[in-house]
Design brief:
Blueprint lengths: L16 H19 L8 H13 L4 H10 L1 H11 L7 H17 L3 E5 L5 E3 L5 E3 H6 L13 E5 L2 E9 L4 H20 L4 E9 L2 H10 L6 E4 L1 H12 L3
Parallel strand pairs: 5-6, 6-7
Antiparallel strand pairs: 1-4, 2-3, 4-5
Helix pairs in contact: 1-4, 3-4, 5-9
């Protein structure tokens, strides 16, 4: 049996992840309010602000929680205000991206494993160093690019820059700027035997297509969303 017929990219609803997680975060906040256990699973700073606002009206935390026991609308509104903002949990999104690709790549004898924060960084002079090496050699982070998000090993070795970018804004623009800088670094410094993956899922299609077009001729640089990256590895490595 031809293995290409048995391996298909895994597709996830990447654009709905945060909406679903926000629902979960809101439900967790409701649970913590009902339990009167507000030391976890909520935005503590926002909760403190609410308690400070209540003081203006001579109301206490107990007054607020007692009212939530009797008023479902107030309970839902309070939970929505103090729940953790899903859009600030980007590392969980990236982990899902990487884990999804890794399931498919494992079938091809390749691994894409998530790296802990700041494990490996490319330096502006062409090195890839661990966080300990950077500290030991007293290298400034200003002399480094953003850290890699995952490492590829197995039939081929390499590095992954993984991000989810939904909507316009400052952070989103920074992600594409970081991607451009890394692509230029790959052209100038990369080892040709290694592969570099720019894994971005985004609704900013024009910006993403511009990035792809700019660097589409670089042999060891792959730019795509989670489906396109899986497809690349399936078509290249399924028969090896």
């Amino acid at each position: 049996m031809n293995i290409i017929n048995t391996i298909e990219p895994i597709k996830i609803d990447i654009y709905n992840i945060r909406n679903e997680r926000q629902k979960i975060n809101n439900e967790l906040a409701i649970k913590r309010i009902q339990e009167r256990n507000l030391n976890k699973d909520i935005n503590n700073e926002e909760y403190k602000r609410i308690l400070s606002e209540l003081l203006i009206y001579n109301k206490t935390e107990k007054d607020l929680l007692d009212d939530c026991d009797d008023n479902i609308i107030l309970l839902i509104i309070l939970a929505g205000r103090i729940s953790i903002n899903a859009s600030r949990q980007g590392t969980k999104d990236e982990l899902l991206q990487i884990d999804t690709c890794n399931i498919t790549l494992n079938k091809l004898g390749i691994s894409m494993n998530k790296l802990s924060v700041n494990s490996y960084r490319p330096t502006k002079d062409g090195q890839i160093l661990t966080n300990n090496d950077i500290k030991k050699n007293k290298i400034s982070l200003n002399d480094c690019l953003k850290s890699f998000d995952a490492k590829i090993s197995g039939k081929i070795n390499g590095w992954v820059f993984a991000k989810i970018v939904i909507g316009n804004g400052g952070h989103q623009d920074n992600v594409f700027e970081e991607a451009y800088i890394l692509c230029e670094w790959v052209i100038k410094y990369s080892i040709l035997s290694d592969i570099y993956i720019i894994l971005i899922d985004t609704d900013l299609i024009n910006k993403f297509n511009e990035l792809k077009k700019r660097f589409n001729l670089i042999e060891n640089l792959i730019i795509g969303n989670h489906i396109e990256v899986q497809q690349y590895f399936i078509h290249k490595y399924y028969h090896n």
